[in-house]
Amino acid sequence: MPWFKRNKQNFSTIRSPKSKLAIPGGLVHKCSKCFSVNYIKDYETNYRVCPRCNYHERLDAWERIAMLTDKDSFQECDSDLRSGDPLKFEDRKKYPERLEEYQKKTGMNEAVVTGCATVEGHPLSLAVMEANFIMGSMGSVVGEKVTRSMEKGIEKNIPVVTVCVSGGARMMEGILSLMQMAKTSILVAEMDAKGIPYITILTHPTTAGVMASFASLGDVIIAEPGCMVGFAGPRVIEQTIRQVLPKGFQTAEFVEKHGFIDCVVHRRELKTTLARFLRYFHDVDAAAS
Ligand SMILES: [Zn+2]
Fold it and tell me: How many angstroms does the Cα of residue 243 sit away from the middle of ligand 1?
């Protein structure tokens, strides 16, 4: 039997800086809102929604299309449309250079993808905006593609759905961007006159010129939880009216409570909710004819 026995370890293991970085990439995801770390597999199965704080992380247009539509049903239209530079706009860089930069970054020609697809077997004309392309701003091509998507709905007598995410009109195209608000709104009125159902899905953030035109004109307006919905940002409003805004101002839940949004739907239920509305409109149409 030893005379001296060390029962307790009085030292600790110091990890080398290398071992700290030894987590393989793509294994975990850190939430942008609550900073909790979750396994990427759990996070992906939860439709890229944080399981702790319910934060709906941004999806790109193609991820959104894959999530909403039936497999291989989406047929893209007007993908070759590109913006010109009618105002010869230049700030930190020339507008055509900026467009090229975003085209390379996103692999898209503009900030919206349009086409026809089915959702649980129901056909629809779909326009999905892309936030990674100059913050989903609406220039003349975005306005034109959204308009054509609505025209397609009228031509084929099918519902039109737009998934919105936008910082508003594109300042690099000045007044031409603002004209898109009128153009798309006219088409919404035409769809209304012809009895074409129009559904909008608002995602974070949907603001300014897009919110003030086709995003807010749906027969049914659906929003994702926690998304910012409004015209000007809360800070600008506070500075203008010199009043403290109520808690949760401009969140989807706040706007729903005040009657502007029909329902706030978790991303995992978005496809089934959309299909339910499409089925309802289809049944109403069939009963009327
Ligand atoms: Zn979170």
Answer: 30
